[in-house]
């Protein structure tokens, strides 16, 4: 290539030579190609099609008596479905928003007051809080208590005490009938 | 080397700080920047770099596949199908890995052919050559075990046939086969250990490649004339001359690779491997992947179990002693009027063996394979040793520069940069 060297004197311009242009365009082209090739290697670690296809779960509510709760799996995570008593609903709604770390009214957290559906993963570092079984420690607010680092949730699943930053999240769900919901 | 900070030539303060403590930049500059390389390389000298790139592609795609693959007889086939259908770009990455194996053998076969034609195995590069043969054998073992992993019919029966080769060993053969299998047939323990070793061996290859390149940088590269560079007028710095020339070859390589992956991903494979492994039914026509066919033909050419196995392994092992079978002091076949044609015939013969290996072992193909097997060995064991004594080589050029730069002789420094004239 150096046989272009003698012509440098005649064609060289202050902004750069033809070789500079070729170098830049070639490098840019190679960089775009490399990036395009890198994407499949990154994207392959995202959820695969069969994982995405499993993204909804149907739950039959009929067998859950008032005051009881069940835990179902949705996207590999526990979802708490609680049939709340009137007293629990009352307790959740009586709390002034000013007392809450992550202020949210109970009405915003349920579609039907007696059914509380939320993801049972502590918002601190991902443990599953206790409180689903009647014998569990339900914490200071009669809701859920995370044994890992001591976060207390109330009967609406809202954080009241402890290191967790926010309320237990509500998954997208819809009532398919009075006794059946579809999560996801 | 004196103890203490390295005297770095670099000006950039960060690079300099590192280089004074760990002179990797100096080393890269010496081995890949200014490294004096014969000025007369042709495109056959691309294939070492291409093999290196190919190894990197195989490791990158293989690590990805291992994230999604399940090495269990009940799940292996389905997990590969899941990679093809459900994993994002899984089809692309698997087809790259599958055809990457074929590309790797194409590249390495050309690389070996280059070494044989231009006498790169000769003194002082014997150990460099031997390390290359070790890499080739490791590649064959890796490719074989990788082909077992999808657990299709060809995987299963290929594994059965190849492991049974060891049963030809007298007295201990059966015990060795049982040991290889971890049972009494190719089964789950076999699959699990093949997966483990298939993941390990590429890194062993990386290690031997490092030694191969280290040895190359002691002796320097051979070249199409097969004569040693006599001074700076015979060499060019590796960068930019050969980084660019390798890049040109890499683009062509990528085009061929992409054409295979995107337009004919299963062209070099066997449809039977998309049938799940069935230990009760052997496919009617069982052949290895194309890159093993020549050796497979040699195996089948011999009407004796042990004899066939010995010749097949011997066909590879003979490469180890090639530097001592060919005692001719002239490296490049360009200057060996008889050996050149004997070797080109050997090349055609290798293609014939490959084709014969793909055909059913009956009729004329048995005869063809036997004649071709005989010539394969005769070239190494009879023709080369004899020609070293009998052949009168053509006169060698005085130097690389005198041969490739018309007018010859050492050039003034300014004109030395005129490399495009080379062959």
Question: In sequence order, what are the helices and strands of chain A, one letter per element?
Answer: HHHEEEHHEEEEEE
Helix content of chain A: 25-40%
- How many domains of chain B, as an integer? 1
And the CATH topology of chain B?
Cytochrome Bc1 Complex, Chain C
Number of strands of chain A: 9
Characterize the overall form of chain A: elongated
CATH architecture of the largest domain in chain A: 3-layer Sandwich
Q: Number of DSSP strands of chain B?
A: 2
Tell me the Rg of chain A in angstroms: 29 Å
Strands of the largest sheet of chain A, in order across it? 1-9-8
Low-confidence stretches of chain A: 1-9
Class from helix and strand fractions of chain A: alpha+beta
Radius of gyration of chain B: 24 Å
Largest interface, counted by CB within 8 Å of the partner chain's CB: A-B, 15 and 19 residues
How large a portion of the residues of chain A is in β-strands, by DSSP E? 15-25%
Strand order of the largest sheet of chain B: 1-2
β-sheet strand percentage of chain B: under 5%
Tell me the quaternary state: heterodimer
Any descriptors?
heterodimer, A: 184 residues, alpha+beta, Rieske Iron-sulfur Protein, 2 domains, three-stranded antiparallel β-sheet, 5 helices, disordered N terminus, B: 423 residues, mainly alpha, Cytochrome Bc1 Complex, Chain C, two-stranded antiparallel sheet, globular, disordered C terminus
What's the short story on this structure?
The complex is a heterodimer of chains A (184) and B (423). Chain A has 184 residues and is of the alpha+beta class.
3D structure, described in words:
The complex is a heterodimer of chains A (184) and B (423). Chain A is of the alpha+beta class. Chain A folds into two domains: 30 residues; 132 residues, Rieske [2Fe-2S] iron-sulphur domain (Rieske Iron-sulfur Protein, 3-layer Sandwich). Helix content of chain A is 26%, strand content 23%. A three-stranded antiparallel sheet of chain A has the order 1-9-8, with no helix packed on it. A three-stranded antiparallel sheet of chain A has the order 2-3-4, with no helix packed on it. Chain B is mainly α and 423 residues long. Chain B has a single domain, classed as Cytochrome Bc1 Complex, Chain C. Chain B has 16 helices and two strands. The C terminus of chain B is likely disordered.
